[in-house]
Specification:
Shape: globular
Number of helices: 6
Strand content: 5-15%
Radius of gyration: 25 Å
Distance between the termini: 86 Å
Order of helices and strands: HHEEHHHEEH
Number of strands: 4
Largest sheet: 2 strands, antiparallel
Helix content: 40-55%
Strand order of the largest sheet: 1-2
Oligomer: single chain
Length: about 140
């Protein structure tokens, strides 16, 4: 009759170490595998709405702008940053370092996270150029 014996102690220890290592790796991977930040899920602003607010389409202000973006949406943002939010920047339609810093300045003043990316929270914190006056985001809607 054959008897079975338990594996040597060091084998069990090795298996336990392997199990702990696999569990730790899985926990570390969760942030990578989890949901992306909300802003990352938003589309880029490609147009303007009401002639002044960067938008992804008519009445869709749930969009983002950041370094490297170009076009009419960036121009509208720059114009309002300069004319209504006291930022010394040009209006060239290119989201470069000066536009990024101007957005950070607005975010800082509003108590928002200062990432230099324009999005819905920054839009609500800004004043917007409307003809010869500056208006709040909500008054533009």
């Amino acid at each position: 009759m054959q008897t079975t014996t338990a594996p040597p102690r060091r084998t069990r220890r090795g298996m336990r170490t392997l199990a702990v290592g696999v569990a730790a790796t899985a926990l570390l991977a969760l942030p990578v595998l989890g949901a992306a930040p909300a802003a990352a899920a938003l589309p880029s602003c490609t147009t303007t709405d009401r002639g002044a607010i960067p938008a992804a389409g008519r009445d869709n202000h749930q969009c983002v702008l950041g370094s490297g973006n170009q076009g009419v949406a960036v121009k509208a943002l720059q114009k309002s940053l300069r004319d209504c939010n006291k930022q010394s920047i040009g209006v060239d339609g290119s989201y470069g370092p000066k536009t990024r810093q101007a957005v950070i300045n607005v975010q800082r003043k509003a108590g928002l996270a200062q990432d230099g990316v324009y999005g819905p929270k920054t839009a609500r914190a800004m004043l917007w150029s409307s003809g010869q006056s500056c208006r709040t985001y909500l008054s533009m809607l």
